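Input sequence (246 aa), recorded before submission:
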Amino acid sequence: MSSDYISKAMIFSAGLGTRFKPWTDHHPKALALINGKSLLQRNIEYLQQYGIYDVVVNVHHFAGQIIAALDAGKGWGSTVSISDETDEVLETGGGLIKARRLLDGAPFVAMNVDILTDLDLNALIRDHFRHRPLATLAVTRRETSRYFLFDDENRLRGWRNIKTGQERWAGGKPFPGAVTQLAFSGIHVIDPALFPVMRQEGKFSTVDVYLEVGAGHIIRGFDHTGSLLVDVGKPESAELAAGLFR
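Predicted structure, token format:
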């Protein structure tokens, strides 16, 4: 299966970017420049490599600047719809609910604007259609503080914060078998069948959703260890990204 089966994506761009100060004192992180191109432009163009030209962008922090940049760049070749969160930033889960009318109907890609990667999106999409879970999460074996926990069939079973020792389990009960901890890459393929089982309202994370529904529904991981991946969360990571993404 090719990426033709997915034609739409959402880029989460509404965050406050508090770790990216001082830039975010006056600008949205989505417009931070890496070698002359904003994170938002780079990810719109990344999606285009896989035939995805219909993009939803949510906005909150300096929303007007993002909208103006999209207008000036004519969506950088894509059709871009705005999901307006100027009243309240809703995080990833709440952001999905807010944008539902723009996304419902077929599986779509969702990704954080501050992730730069050379992940083969076609491979992730093929894996999703092969197994047909509610969502497929791109993950890697890298060091971080928070991990998703997967069983030997790549099914999500829990979440762990290794700094605090906190663990959360799908359905609320610890999984009795062995689990592997993998770091989330901020990219998912989501089936719209996820929407009817999302019970949260307001501001919440997709992590909360996946852990709540993961006992009764299949959420899978897709390991793309070996791909380039930079979480441009802090100014120093922007310097790293500039050396890797031209």
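Checked by second reader. The longest strand covers residues 180-190.
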